[in-house]
Amino acid sequence: MKDKVLILNQDFSAIAVCSIYKAFLLVYLDKAEMVTKSEIESLRTVSTTFPVPSVIRLQRYVHVPYHGIALSRHNIMRRDNYTCQYCGNARNLTLDHLLPRSRGGETNWLNLVTACSRCNTRKGDRTPEEAGLKLLRKPIRPSLQYFLKMQLTPANQDWGMYLGVKE
After folding, report:
1. Whole-model pTM?
2. Are 89 and 110 found together in one domain?
3. What is the mean pLDDT of residues 37-62?
């Protein structure tokens, strides 16, 4: 059971994703209620079968201070789907500054992309245009909703309505 469960605040806003076991524990302890259950799986004990939650809602409103998504190597690669943004390769990945730091480029969401070592070496101390490289996708500053939407799979399509995904 590697599936994840979407956690909603009391106002039905998505705040996190957790394991099935943690979600079941929250429901069992009456700290959350099951909004939707998985039709595929169930949790079994010796004498009882329990439905597996897919979406749960907390019983109390939790104030979650928003500090934004941390700028980290992992989150940049996650945003770029672990592929080179120049050639689409998924091996030997590094980070690349679109405007090189030596030329005044900053380390921020809009100036960093995932690149394979070959493309990064080819680009060198130039901009992608100067090196004759074209970006597959323009870099964006991701939000929590963006990362939660990335975890949508056919098994948890019922999350869509809580994440603002149109069907």
Report:
1. 0.75
2. yes
3. 90
